[in-house]
Amino acid sequence: MAVTLHAPSATASTESHADWLELRSLLADDFSSSLTDLVRALRPTGTIEEVLEEQIGGEDASPAQLSDPGDDMSEAVADSASSELDDREFACGGPVASGGAYPFVRGAQYLQSSPEAVRAVYVFLLLLSTQGIAAGPAGLIATELFEDVAAAAAASYFGADGHGVGIYQFGFPRRRTLPGFKPAINELCSRLAEGGGARDRPDSRHQKDAKLDLVVWRPFPDARMGKVVAFGQCAAGNDWRDKLSEMQPRTFTSAWMTHPLGLEPTRLFFCPFRVERDRWETTVLSSGVLFDRCRIALHCANLSGELADKCQQFSAHVLEQQLVHA
User: Which of 5, 24, 117, 306 is the most exposed, having the fewest neighbouring CB atoms within 10 Å of its CB?
Assistant: First the structure.
């Protein structure tokens, strides 16, 4: 069933306003949206007036009191959205046309996409975060696709090609590694050449992934212990904030590995959302190294092959069959 793209309220976050401008650009016949579109869309919702009534004096505020301040507030909302779009472009390493990962071109008052934008990982992440994990076509499991994209971003961040970077996708259900919990830990420790294998615990048979979705490391040629290892968690749904602190590497290794790793693993957290600037610090303090939409897109700018095709398949389905212009 198609879902109509409606403008967010004036009281919604700046990130929501920027998301709406990006989505509108993708859906428009001319592949563009403007700050004027946002200002016009906010007025019919009535939320600008509701905010002003609270600030000026409630329902007794006169139309004259609401008129000009409403215009000012609409412009302030649009200016904030514009700044957020600029920040996204910068965080993505620039527009795609200039070698970055941002699939839009910024003008002073507008945002321009292209038919090729559907191929961008950024668009996949935008649609996943705004339309949900069930929005894709039948047979394509969005959470698994997101984990694969996160793994690619993690490998790129660690140096990937030419450095022997290792990736182990531990998340349940395991699709590329051994299916059982203990066998998977044994295999992981073998690849890491650390950890000593799985501990013999009676409750291990009830475990699925113990909140660990992926492991990434950068080895040395000597294959000795003492290297950078990171444990990552992926959260594609709207409850992602509830999962920020779930993955604790020290707890995982103490509970499930025979020996601790040479160095405590770094925490990585992946989500397809754009994290608000004023909540960034507290989010990082809870999650570890945070990969939000822009950071993931930056490190998947050159994604190709089957994984890129699946991202495009998801995006094309949502844009062509699920989401329609208001």
Answer: 306
Task: Measure the CA–CA gap between 77 and 70, rounded to whole angstroms.
Answer: 11
Q: Would you call 179 exposed, middle or buried from its count of C-beta atoms within 10 A (0-12, 13-18, 19+)?
A: exposed
Tens digits of residue pLDDT in 81-103: 999 999 999 999 999 989 999 99
Using only C-alpha atoms, the chain has a radius of gyration, in whole angstroms, of 23
Fold of 142-315: Trna Endonuclease; Chain: A, domain 1 (3.40.1350)
Domain ranges of the chain: 3-113, 142-315
C-alpha span between 220 and 225 (Å, rounded):
9
User: What pTM did the predictor assign?
Assistant: 0.90
Per-residue pLDDT tens digits for 204-231: 777 899 999 999 999 999 988 999 999 9
Residue appearing with tokens 């006169």: 62
Which residues lie closer than 8 Å to 54 by C-beta, 6 or more apart?
Answer: none
